[in-house]
Every structure is written in C-alpha cells, then in structure tokens.
UniProtKB/TrEMBL annotation:
Tree of life domain: Bacteria
Residues in Beta galactosidase small chain/ domain copies: 692-960
InterPro entries given in the database record: B-gal_small/dom_5, Bact_Beta-galactosidase, Beta-gal/glucu_dom_sf, Gal_mutarotase_sf_dom, Galactose-bd-like_sf, GH, GH-type_carb-bd, Glyco_hydro_2
One annotated Gene Ontology cellular component of this protein: beta-galactosidase complex
E.C. designation(s): 3.2.1.23
Catalytic reaction equation(s): Hydrolysis of terminal non-reducing beta-D-galactose residues in beta-D-galactosides
Entry-linked PANTHER family: BETA-GALACTOSIDASE (PTHR46323)
Entry protein name: Beta-galactosidase
Family (UniProt): Belongs to the glycosyl hydrolase 2 family.
Enzyme superclass (EC): hydrolase
GO molecular function, one term: beta-galactosidase activity
GO biological process: lactose catabolic process
Keyword list, A-Z: Glycosidase, Hydrolase
Length: 966
C-alpha cells in the first residue's frame, strides 16, 4: 500500500469571498461510530436509512461530542511506527446529512468544500464516491454538479481517526478526529472567477504600489479589477501600477478594498501592499528591518478543540496585540481560513505553516522518514500546494513554512522548490534544515543564549575556516528562533536575555514563544465540577501528560505571568528614567512608526499618595531611534519623610484601536526612591520571657511562634525548597546529563528538612531562639538565630541570621522564612513589585507600587499545581486572613513574599488544580533569595546567575497583627 493523497478533488485555489450563492451544510448530522475499519458496517450506509444513528454537530470533533475520548501525545505516535499503516483499533466515524439544494444554487456548477476533516475521509454524494481526502487542516473541494439533486441529497462521509496521513500529522497536540471545519456548497456561475493570485508589491524607494494579478476565469472571459481608494479600474491581468500607496505592515495594517468581477461574479478582496526581502542577512519589510515579537499559535478551545469560533479568535488576537505581539507562526498547520483575514486586519507577520510533521520517526532514528521517501513526494507537494494556494492573497503571510519537525529529505526540498517557483514574494521557512540549503531564513528552536549570540555574530560553529558552501550560505541568512521560551507552568525565564541579543545583532530577527495557548480540555468531574484535563486523563496508554499545558494564556485565555513578562520585554517603547530624574531616555523600538500615537504620562506617588502627574512630549521620534526628554522639576522635588517615592511613566494609546481602548498601556518605565525604615525604639518597660515577647507567644518546647496577638501563627521555619515547577522537573538542555532540579533537591533532602531546637536565651527585652534545620541522611543543615524584641504592645521585631553548614550537593530553590497562619487567606496589600508574581529571571512585567491582591490572585492556578505567586522587592505587606491580619515590614533589605492557601507539599503532590483542597491555613513565605524559573522543559535551564547557591542570610523585620474586619 502506498501513502495516499486526496483523490477526486479539484486543484487547490485561493479562498475567495464572492457574491456567488453558497449553502452551508453545517448543523446536526447523523453519526455512527465504529471501532475499526474492518468492523465498520458495510451496509450501504451512504444511502440507507440512518434515522436510528446518533446525532453530531458539524463542525466538531467526535471525541469532544461524547464519542470515545481524545488522546494526547507529543512526538510519540500512539500506535506502532509501521508506515503507512494505521492500527486496526482505528475509530471510524460515518456521517450522513440529507438536504435539499438551495434554489440559488440550482442551474450552477456546484462545488462541495470541506475546510477540515481529521484525518482522512471518503466522500459520497447520493451513493456515488466523489473521492477521498488527506490533509486534516487543508481545504478539499469536489465538483458535485453531476451528482447533486434538487432535493433529497444524501451526503455521506466516512472519516478515519488514523490513516497513512497520521504519520505526517504527528504534531504535538490532541488527536481529535472528525469534520471539524465547515462544509459548504458553492454555486459556480458560468464565467465565474475560479482563482486569484495578487502580489501587491510596495516599493520603499518610491512609495509606489504594483499589483501583479493573475485571475483564472471560467471560459477565459476578462475580469476587471477595481480599487476605489486608488482609482484603479483595469483589466485584472498582469502588472498594474497603482501609484502612491500606504504600505501594509503589522504596525500599519492598511488594506485597500478591491473587487474583481466578471459579468457573473464579483469577488471582494482586501489588498495590502508590502515587500518582504532579505538584505545583508537582515529580514526587511518595506525596506526596513523588522523584529518578530512572536508566538506559536495552535487552534484550541477547551470545549471545542480546533473548531473555529470567530469571536473568540478575534478576542485572542486582540489579546496578543494588547501584549505587543506582532507575529504568529501558525504552528503547525494553516489555521481556519478566516483567521488569516484577522491577521491582515489587526496587523501580524505570519509564518503560515504547512500541515506536516513526521516527528514520530525520531523514535526510529529517522529510518523510513517520509520526508526522504519518494513514495511520499506527492503527498508532501499536495500539502504545500493546498497551504499556499488557499492563503496566497494575504499580506500578513511573510513566510511559508514547509512544516515542523519532519527531519530532512528530498521531499522537503521539493516542496521548497515548488514554493519558490510559485511565489517569489515570500520567504521559505523550515526549522529542520539546519544547513539551510533550501530555506531563506536560518531558523532554530530553543537554541541557548550563548549559541544565539554566536549566530548573531555570524561565528556559529563550525568555524568559518572549515565552513562548507552551505554553512557560508547560512551565514547570509537572517536568524529567527521559531520556538523559544517554553511557556510551560511557571515560566518561561530568561526571555529578556534572549531579547537583548535579538536587539544587539542585526541578523537576529526575533522569535516565537512556545506557545500561545495551553491545550487543556474541559471535562466534568464526578462531583459535577469543571476540570481541565491533559494527557493521560482519558486513559491513553501512550501520552505525554501535561506537556500540552504550555501556553502564555490558559485554555480559557487568562494571561499567565509569562505573557505579562513577555509583553514588557517586547514592548515597542522603552523608557529609562535617569537616576536624578532630570530626564528620560525613550527608545522607539517600532520598526515602521513614530511614537505620535502614544501619550507619555508620568505620575509621582509618595507613600501611596499621588502628589504630581503630567505628560511629556514624545512626538516625532522616528522608528528604531532614541531620544532624551527632560522631566519637570516636580518629578524630583524633595519629600522629606517619604519611605517610597515612585515615579512611573506609561506610554498609552491616544485613541482606541480595534484591539484596545484609548489609554491602553503599551509600555512602562519607573524610578523608585526608598528609605529603609529605622527600627523604632522599644517602648520602655517591655520584657521578654521564653514564652512571651510583647504580642508574640512561643512554644516552650521548640521556641516557635504560637500566636501574634490573637492571630494563630506558627514559624518561622527555614525553607529552601519550593513545589517544583514544570521547569524544575526537566533537565535543562544545557545540562542534559544532570538530573532536573526537582530530583537534585530531593536527593539533597531539601524537600524534607527536619529542624531541631537548640536553645532559647533571654537578654533584657529580647528572646533569641536558635535552631538547626537539617536535611535527612546528610550532614548539611542551616543554623538559625531568631531574636524577638517587643517594640510596643502590638509590634515585635525579628532579627534573623542564617548560616549554612556542611557540604551541599545542590543549589537551593530559595532561602526563606515560612509561617503558617491557622486561618484561610483573604488577600494581601503590599508595597513592592506587582501586581503579579515575579521571579529573578522573569521580572520585566512588574512595577513598584502599593498593590492589593485578592485571594484568587495570590498564586497562579496552574493546571498542574506548582510553585507560583512570589512578589519581589516587598518592603511592607499585610496578609489578611479570616482570623486577622499579619503585617510585615522590613528594617533591612526588601524580601520576596509568597502567600498561598496551599502548602508546598500539597502543591507538589497534587497533579490537577481541580483536586487541590485548601486546608484552611495561610502559608506565608518571606524569602531572602528565590531561584529563577528558566525554561528547562525545552531549552536552557535556570541561568547560573539566577540560581541560589547555599548561602548565609540576614534580615530584620517588624511583625504586627490586627483583628479581621468583617
Ligand atoms: C517543539 C515542537 C512543538 C512542541 C514543543 C514542546 O519541539 O515543535 O510542537 O512539541 O517542542 O512543547
């Protein structure tokens, strides 16, 4: 058996918006599921009575409609690597819909269009086999004129869950069979427009636009092109000079409404003029270098899977725009065709990727990889033709991507040759071709910072002296990271360090975070509550667990902290405040536009109260340039008693756009002046005993806090562990030979420390408790001295000294003081970086302020529970619980604060957030040091400078409490 391609289909062509009649066949269809092809009834199902079948929605995936269940695997094929055969256990979905043909279609030639069927199908109309499909995310059209009746049509589709095509559709996502995109009948008038290919070029030297128009019209009649805004009215053929135009770019997505018509049909298009090319290893759009601030986007909805939902996609893309994202790689298949319209309209640079991945062959060391097997050549070519043809009129598409992780081979090369011959207006991308012989950009995934730096300097290995022609050629190409910053769980970290490199070297044209959205699927638990599921939750025998939960937004589109961090890193404006506040340095990091559409607003807040505000003039700063702008005296006039004086600047949109309201903040900058509070003198006459120091009472057995005022509170324990993040559970690619941090920590015992009370000493009004916190099995431990001094009837001072002992075998996750309040949290107020979490290597999206955090936002509700929620540079915080509040102020350096309704042990042991049960306590950690998060799930681990080596620590705090307000 040879691998198949679609049969009986029409040649692929552009998606056109036409006034020709159409009939939607979406809706309720009859459905019958069989467990295997051989077991599927051969009962004339195409035409027989099917009233007793089940019902299903079209478009939908049957696994999400109550028929069997979805399955997730990354590159592992869920069945034996035995190409081109699917397994016997292969769900077969028989679909039937009976319909009458709309009057408007009658008398026309009629085409039946499927926009997406996973994974292969046989199509029957009125008992006649029209053909078969391959290419799940690709459009397939059949001419049905001969078999269509006026009424009583029976459309029958047999869909295979797996097919030979599954071997080249092994993308890292849920296997979700079914007719999941629309089914449409298209009336094709005589003399109608079959296909259009418009290349709308913009000449940056002259500002002129040129159209290269190719129109395929039935019967070869002439078509006319009109573009009213450009007063174009011409025969739609060949090059047409249109004079001066506004160019299209992601920053200026100018589209011109155009019509192409014949006597019988009018097609509407939106034309964007732009030129994409490479010069001196730089990626240029309209003659200017561009930086791709990208994400990889899969189509995903927690209830509907890959079914298109126009409102949600608009919301999704608007959310991207509001977070400064300007580029999308459509990983790893062309999205629903209308998504491209939105990309054009909102302004994104798109790498449109073919529906192709043969990653499973990595498990046979790439033996029999279809990419290098002649038998699959046509299948590869068919896929790229369908991809390119459908989307070729979209200005947003700047590169065609041959596919993802399909190894290397002649078939990929053949695809590239076809693309280059067909469309020279765009670039060819494929990450798997490291030698870059048949691509136009050098693309990699998860390359380390060091390697990206080398590539930037064009000295990547091997050294130039031994370089082959291909390697020399590669060095003339721009570089992108088509995947970097793996946004799984808490992370990614060290993205800013990549961005600094991208900005430093002209050859580096940016990158695409992996990935935009988490693919969690919504299910209902036994108790009726909503649960987000991942791999293995449906009983799959081969799966990749929560590796599918790795997005900048949750499956419900809630931004994760990684998105907030990324938005700040890639912000198109950078505002740096001079240390003396005399001026700001403003960098315009847009590639095309000035900052005239932004208002630069400053605010000065002293101890929580705004004392001055104003705007500064940032007009006329051209793209990719910097300017110094003076600040008024009121930004720096001396305020004698201030503990914190925050000058913040915001670049805000002056007028609303289609994706954000006026006032939306694009970028921030700040300067902070802080005064360390001096310890108040203790009120005279206060004394200390082994059990009491002012408002604090202690257990005499272990010297630990028992209550503070009326607040039941235990601690502090010395904590050096955290509930492993997803990244902590994987070895970074830079130290793949070492165990992941979670294992190193376990091996070093820091997840199970044991403490011993050494002594309690009283000296005048102070109690000093000494403890040793040790690791099981080993000699390592931390000696702590905790000196408690009553300052007043409510305030207690705590001076802490921590000294590590022994030879540690691992870095720590953190160094902190852990308290447990025996009452559930309500929220917190603090001064520090916020409003969200920050870790040392992912702290770009936070700013200094007086923040209020509700209970639900204390931590991040990761689908797989893990450490989250640390607030950095905190000077003062009040944690509210049902039993009262705890206020902590530092007398020395700021600290990191984590407040959670869950213990770290619970977080580490629970696999799904739906199973987390709050135990009624509030867990408060005051950290002197906290490790970065890195991106070890894919890419480098935590950079050395963000690790916490065993170290001594000191901090002085004031603790007080107040009763709960009702
Ligand atoms: C890449 C792959 C993506 C995804 C990612 C890990 O290798 O291209 O599809 O699997 O790794 O999440």
């Amino acid at each position: 058996m040879l691998p198949q391609i679609s049969t009986g289909t029409l040649s692929s062509r552009a998606r056109l918006t036409s006034n020709a009649p159409e009939q939607q066949l979406d809706g309720k269809w009859h459905f019958r599921l069989s467990r295997s092809l051989r077991g599927a009834p051969d009962d004339q199902w195409q035409t027989a009575e099917c009233e007793n079948w089940d019902e299903i929605d079209v478009p939908a995936h049957w696994n999400l409609q109550g028929f069997e269940s979805p399955a997730y695997s990354n590159h592992q094929m869920p069945f034996p690597l035995d190409p081109p055969y699917p397994p016997d256990a292969n769900q077969i979905g028989d679909y039937r819909v009976d319909f009458d043909t709309d009057a408007a279609l009658q008398g026309h030639r009629v085409v039946l269009r499927f926009d997406g069927i996973e994974s292969a199908a046989e199509i029957w109309l009125n008992g006649e086999l029209l053909g078969t499909t391959r290419g799940s995310r690709l459009t397939q059209e059949f001419d049905v004129t001969a078999s269509l009746r006026e009424s009583g049509n029976q459309l029958a589709v047999r869909v295979m869950q797996f097919s030979d095509a599954s071997y080249i559709e092994d993308q890292d996502m849920w296997w979700l069979p079914g007719i999941f995109r629309s089914v449409t009948l298209l009336g094709r008038p005589d003399g109608g427009i079959e296909d259009i290919f418009i290349v709308a070029d913009y000449d940056p030297a002259t500002g002129a636009g040129t159209l290269d128009v190719k129109v395929a019209v039935q019967n070869d009649v002439d078509a006319r092109l009109t573009i009213p805004a450009l007063t174009v009215d011409a025969v739609a053929k060949g090059p047409i000079e249109v004079g001066l135009v506004e160019p299209w770019s992601a920053e200026t997505p100018t589209l011109y409404d155009a019509e192409i018509s014949t006597a019988s049909e009018t097609v509407q298009l939106r034309v964007g003029f732009r030129r994409v090319h490479i010069e001196e290893a730089q990626l240029l759009v309209n003659g200017r270098p561009v930086m791709l601030r990208g994400v990889n986007r899969h189509e995903h909805h927690p209830d509907k899977g890959r079914v298109f939902d126009p409102e949600r996609v608009r919301a999704e893309l608007s959310l991207m725009k509001r977070h400064n994202i300007n580029a999308v790689r459509t990983s790893h298949y062309p999205p629903h065709p209308e998504v491209l319209d939105l990309f054009d309209e909102l302004g994104f640079y798109i790498i449109d990727e073919c529906d192709l991945e043969s990653h499973g062959f990595e498990h046979s060391e790439w033996r029999r990889n279809p990419s290098n097997d002649d038998a699959w050549r046509e299948a590869y070519l068919d896929r790229i033709r369908r991809t390119v043809n459908r989307d070729k009129n979209h200005p947003s598409v700047i590169m065609w991507s041959l596919g993802n992780e399909a190894g290397t081979g002649a078939n990929l090369e053949a695809m590239s040759s076809w693309v280059k011959a067909f469309d020279s207006s765009r670039l060819v991308h494929y990450e798997g071709d490291w030698s870059s012989t048949y691509v136009d950009v050098y693309s990699r995934m998860y390359a380390s910072h060091a390697e990206v730096g080398e590539i930037g300097r064009e000295v990547e290995q091997p050294a130039p002296i031994t370089a082959t022609a291909a390697e020399m050629h590669r060095r003339t190409l721009p570089f992108i990271q088509c995947e970097f910053g793996h946004a799984m769980g808490n992370g990614p970290g060290a993205v800013a360090e990549y961005w600094d490199l991208f900005e430093q070297y002209p050859r580096l044209a940016g990158g695409f975070i992996w990935e935009w959205i988490e693919h969690g699927l919504a299910t209902t638990g036994a108790d009726g509550t909503r649960r987000i599921a991942y791999g293995g939750d449906f009983g799959e025998t081969v799966h990749d667990s929560n590796f599918v939960i790795d997005g900048l937004v949750s499956a419900d589109l809630e931004p994760r902290p990684g998105l907030i961090d990324y938005a700040a890193i890639i912000a198109p404006v950078r505002i740096v405040v001079a240390a003396d506040r005399s001026h700001i340095d403003v960098a315009n990091r847009y590639d095309m536009v000035s900052l005239d559409h932004l208002e630069l607003v400053w605010r000065r807040v002293v101890d929580g109260v705004e004392i001055a505000a104003g705007t500064v003039d940032a007009a006329g700063i051209s793209p990719r340039s910097r300017t110094r702008i003076p600040l008024p005296e009121s930004t720096r006039s001396v305020v004698e008693t201030a503990l914190a004086d925050v000058l913040s600047l915001e670049a805000r949109l002056r007028v609303a756009t289609s994706w954000a309201p006026a006032g939306h903040v694009v970028s921030r900058g700040e300067d902070v002046r802080e005064t360390v509070i001096t310890a108040p003198e203790p009120t005279a006459g206060l004394t200390a005993s082994a059990s009491h120091v002012g408002a604090a009472s202690f257990g005499v057995v272990d010297g630990a806090l028992v209550t503070l005022g009326a607040l039941p509170i235990a601690g502090p324990a010395v904590g050096i562990w955290r509930a492993p993040t997803d990244n902590d559970r994987y070895p970074g690619w830079d130290e793949a030979e070492k165990p992941p941090f979670a294992d190193r920590w376990h091996d070093a015992g820091i997840d199970r420390t044991v403490s011993r009370f050494i002594s309690a000493e009283i000296e005048s009004a102070s109690l000093t408790v000494r403890t040793r916190t040790g690791t099981p099995i080993r000699e390592t431990g931390i000696e702590g001295a905790f000196t408690w001094t009553a300052l007043s009837s409510t305030d207690v001072r705590l001076d802490v000294t921590l000294e590590p002992r022994g030879k540690w075998t691992s870095d720590w996750a953190r160094l902190g003081l852990d308290f447990v309040i025996a009452s559930p949290p309500r929220g917190m107020d603090y001064f520090g970086l916020g409003p969200g979490q920050a870790y040392p290597d992912s702290a770009s999206g936070v700013s200094h302020g007086w923040w209020n955090v509700e209970r639900a936002h204390l931590t991040v509700d990761h689908v797989r529970p893990q450490e989250s929620g640390s607030r950095r540079e905190v000077r003062e915080a009040t944690v509210q619980t049902d039993a009262g509040s705890l206020t902590v102020r530092t007398l020395s350096q700021p600290f990191a604060l984590t407040v959670s309704p869950h213990s770290r042990k619970t977080l580490a042991e629970t696999t799904h957030n739906a199973d987390l049960v709050a135990d009624g306590n509030t867990y408060v950690s005051i950290d002197l040091a906290q490790s970065g998060v890195g991106t070890a799930t894919c890419g480098p681990g935590i950079l050395q400078r963000y690790r916490v080596a065993p170290q001594p620590g000191r901090i002085s705090l004031v603790l007080s409490t107040a009763p709960a307000t009702v």
